[in-house]
From TrEMBL:
The lineage of its organism: Eukaryota, Viridiplantae, Streptophyta, Embryophyta, Tracheophyta. The keyword Ubl conjugation does not apply. It comes from Centaurea solstitialis. Keywords: Guanine-nucleotide releasing factor. Transmembrane segments: none annotated. This is PRONE domain-containing protein. Residues 1-180 form the PRONE domain.
Length: 205
């Protein structure tokens, strides 16, 4: 999803999505996630995801929507408090001063959590923000690139699946051939280990 994600990231965020953002980021992510994100220790998105015990891609997508909404809520608050018009300007300003703005820290942690979540679920469906961008996008060039990137990623996924199927079949055939060789070797050993009964031996009996 790397190609498609990079194209979607360049698209403008629709006003309808901005209006729908929660006033409080904590409300969106929930108390459990928020408490960990505001803890004094080192923030580990992977550890947090392990603790959440996500059981399906549906749950993962729901979490991605909530985290993404909270991230943009905190970004807006950070921009407002620093009197900046863009998130990049806020990050640059904070990097030059003390990183004490809680909204900036939470927004960056939400961003890293969202990134780790998408890494764990590479086939995750598009988030609410992604679908909103596609729906309200007015740039024809970006629309073409976005559609083309989805086709390319679909083909890439199919090619990888085909390769995995071929490797699986090849391994199965090799295992079957190995079992046949082992069986043949077993019978050969058994044959040579059994005493030969000759006619002379029978006459003696």
């Amino acid at each position: 999803m790397a190609i498609n994600s990079s194209i979607l990231a360049e698209m403008e965020i629709p006003q309808t999505y901005i209006v729908s953002l929660p006033k409080c980021g904590r409300t969106s992510v929930g108390d459990t996630i928020y408490r960990y994100m505001t803890s004094g220790g080192k923030f580990s998105p992977d550890y947090l995801l392990d603790c959440l015990n996500i059981s399906s891609e549906h749950e993962a997508l729901e979490l991605a929507d909530r985290v993404e909404a909270s991230m943009y809520t905190w970004r807006r608050k950070a921009c407002a408090s620093h009197s900046k018009t863009s998130w990049e300007m806020v990050k640059q300003h904070v990097a030059e001063t003390e990183r004490s703005d809680k909204n900036v820290v939470l927004a960056e942690r939400a961003d890293s959590l969202l990134f780790s979540l998408k890494q764990r679920y590479p086939e995750l469906s598009q988030t609410t923000l992604d679908t909103s961008k596609i729906q309200y996008n007015k740039d024809v060039g970006q629309a073409i690139l976005e559609s083309y990137s989805r086709v390319l990623e679909g083909l890439a996924f199919n090619i990888v699946a085909w390769i995995e199927d071929v490797l699986f079949e090849d391994k199965s055939i090799r295992n079957q051939e190995g079992e046949k060789v082992e069986i043949q070797l077993f019978y050969r050993i058994l044959w040579f280990s059994v005493p030969m009964v000759t006619m002379e031996t029978l006459q003696r009996l």
